[in-house]
Write a sequence for this structure.
């Protein structure tokens, strides 16, 4: 048990997407349970939009259900305004929700390096004036590089001599998010203790969630090919995936290509520039690209440039389509939706309701924040991207999965 932890440590927070839930996620949960057997595990999970700028493969309720069936006690939603955002915004909003519950003792996150000291070093230094001055110079001098690449080069240039293994800190997506979680804790002056678990490899029958998504979409016409996924997922997770896949209850944004392209085509460059991720002339590139694209993938390919990552381009398009502005993302979330819970999780949430500084919505139909925000619109549009929309209901009528 880490020195900071005691027998009174009882609540653990996880930030995740479970897109879908696989053995790597189960490994993290099992490690937590070994360390603190009786802890309550609360996950903040992206809703139907994920951080890579994509639609989640399965609905937020199905993915949350997978997590609860495998050891998480309650899953709260990171609303889409912040879930479809760069790492710094995504991480801060997620940590803000955990911090605002006022009772989380520890946050556990995966990282490629597994070195909390190194991650803390990176978090501290990237908050410094010295680093940001250097980064701005790098960005101006290396316009052909992406923002993450400029961050990595500037950081290595400044601090490479101080830490022998610092060169690897910004090469892994989990390391990058880990640094942002730590920065968020510092900014909030949070009492939550950080802990990292080194990401396991194929020795644990683990592959990335993106591997599973790509495999499923590639073999969507051959459901028998799903057997390959059995070794990479817990049995109950795989069973849910197999049922949803066979009934074609999974999403692909390409299914609503025409809606995305036709909507953005109607906007002028001034309107486009209002939305998160745009600016600096991007609005002109978008206007030109959308008028010469006739499916979603070609639109993304036409927009990708040497200085733009695929994820940043995808987030930008979704922000425009759904009306997510920079101003919206500057404010932290004021509420979160309960997506799934077991009895232990329900009991925990009931005990903290009066203490919590963030509203926990359990019945979307009776909550004006959900009905009057863009969340319901996004959740209903998400349903249009499913391969099979039979028996779908309006998002306002959906309820948490309770086990």
């Amino acid at each position: 048990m880490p020195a900071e932890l005691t027998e009174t440590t009882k609540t653990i927070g996880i930030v995740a997407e479970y897109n879908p839930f696989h053995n790597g996620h189960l490994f993290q949960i099992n490690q937590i349970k070994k360390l603190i057997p009786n802890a309550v595990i609360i996950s903040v999970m992206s809703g139907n939009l994920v951080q890579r700028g994509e639609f989640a493969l399965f609905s937020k309720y199905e993915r949350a259900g997978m997590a609860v069936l495998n050891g998480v006690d309650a899953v709260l939603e990171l609303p889409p305004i912040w879930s479809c955002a760069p790492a710094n915004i995504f991480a801060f909003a997620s940590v803000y929700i955990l911090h605002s519950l006022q009772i989380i003792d520890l946050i556990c996150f995966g990282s490629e390096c597994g070195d909390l000291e190194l991650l803390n070093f990176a978090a501290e230094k990237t908050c410094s004036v010295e680093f940001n001055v250097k980064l701005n110079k790098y960005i101006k001098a290396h316009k052909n590089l992406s923002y993450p690449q400029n961050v990595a080069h500037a950081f290595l240039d400044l601090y490479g001599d101080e830490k022998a293994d610092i060169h690897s800190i910004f090469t892994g997506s989990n390391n990058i998010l880990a640094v942002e979680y730590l920065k968020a804790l510092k900014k909030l002056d949070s009492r939550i203790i950080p802990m990292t678990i080194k990401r396991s490899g194929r020795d644990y029958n683990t592959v990335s969630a993106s591997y599973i998504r790509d495999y499923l979409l590639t073999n969507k016409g051959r459901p028998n090919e799903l057997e390959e996924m059995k070794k990479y997922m817990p049995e109950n997770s795989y069973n849910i995936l197999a049922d949803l896949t066979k009934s074609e209850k999974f999403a692909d944004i390409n299914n609503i290509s025409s809606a995305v392209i036709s909507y953005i085509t109607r906007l002028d460059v001034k309107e486009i520039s209002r939305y998160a991720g745009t600016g600096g002339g991007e609005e002109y590139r978008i206007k030109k690209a959308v008028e010469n694209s006739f499916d979603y993938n070609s639109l993304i390919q036409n927009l990708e440039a040497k200085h733009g990552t695929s994820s940043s381009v995808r987030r930008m398009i979704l922000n425009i389509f759904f009306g997510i502005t920079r101003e919206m993302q500057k404010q932290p979330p004021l509420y979160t939706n309960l997506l799934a819970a077991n009895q232990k999780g329900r009991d925990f949430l009931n005990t903290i309701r009066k203490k919590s500084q963030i509203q926990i919505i359990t019945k979307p139909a009776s909550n004006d924040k959900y009905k009057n925000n863009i969340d319901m619109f996004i959740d209903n549009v998400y349903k249009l991207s499913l391969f099979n929309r039979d028996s779908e209901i309006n998002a306002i009528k959906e309820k948490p999965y309770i086990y």
